[in-house]
Amino acid sequence: MPPKVLTITNQKGGTGKTTLTALLGHALVARGYNVLLMDLDPQSHLSSFFLKITDLENVRDGIIEMAQGVKFVIRKVDTSTRGRMGIIPSGLNYIVNTYRGMIPSWDPYAINSRIQMEPAINRDYNFILCDTPPELFPPTIWGLYAADYVLVPSNLEELSLAGVKLLVKDILPDVIMKSKKELKILGIIVINVTRKVSGNTLNSVDHAFTKFLHQLPPTVRERFYKKPFFNTIIYRYEELKDLMYRPRRWELPLNRVMERNNELRQNIDTLAREVLERVENFEGLT
Ligand SMILES: Nc1ncnc2c1ncn2[C@@H]1O[C@H](COP(=O)(O)OP(=O)(O)O)[C@@H](O)[C@H]1O
Ligand SMILES: [Mg+2]
């Protein structure tokens, strides 16, 4: 069975995309799946969880090369996952390349075609998790067109939620139309909120969003999971705060951070279970 591609997106920055990608990756590995992470963000945050910054300064066989159709390398990360997790990193040099107009933008299906063609990906991985940049430029579009499923993380801050609406109303309909896949929206994941958040707040956000979805054409609505918001909420944890600024973070793999906090580990495992359940529900329908 070809790997399922899950693209984590929200064009708003700081909504938890990178954190969610890394955590979900580890939780799926812990459940016995092989996971390939693809860092589509030239900011390289996800890559820096696993690879030294000095190794990211000049990547010549990472995600951009993959999109260009030339040689790329899957780095096996985190020995404790026994090779079950790999990453195609993003390099810091890609920002300069973007400035110089060297990011190939002519083929929005670049990553999708490459995933389908590569035996090393199709043979070895069950899930591909794509982390995307907080803007809509070619790497984000590659991730959206490669996706079987889209996951949208958001905190409860107003701008983040407004960003989700924008994505759903103005961007996803176009992507759904142009994607060569039967793209589905797996749901919105509320992340980085305190445990004090009230059930009422969550219900009213859910209610308002469901109402908003009903105003959209059925062709868009039917691509959404029947419950747009995940039941699982990822709470705010001290050890996840500013994770991407932690010095030498690649030396303390995230799964060890998770192992030290039972509550966090269980929280993420519950999310992974819900992701699998939602995917199965969709697959059962086809
Ligand atoms: N569950 C969480 N608990 C604590 N901090 C979090 C949590 N999720 C995200 N953060 C923090 O919020 C900030 C933005 O998260 P990040 O994953 O980088 O978002 P994005 O990739 O969408 O820009 C980071 O500083 C991150 O450490
Ligand atoms: Mg990010």
TrEMBL record:
Residues in AAA domain copies: 4-184
CDD domains assigned to the protein according to its UniProt record, in alphabetical order: ParAB_family
UniProt xrefs under Pfam families: AAA_31
Domain of life per record: Archaea
Coiled-coil features, chain-numbered ranges: none
Protein name as it appears in the record: AAA domain-containing protein
Gene source species: Zestosphaera tikiterensis
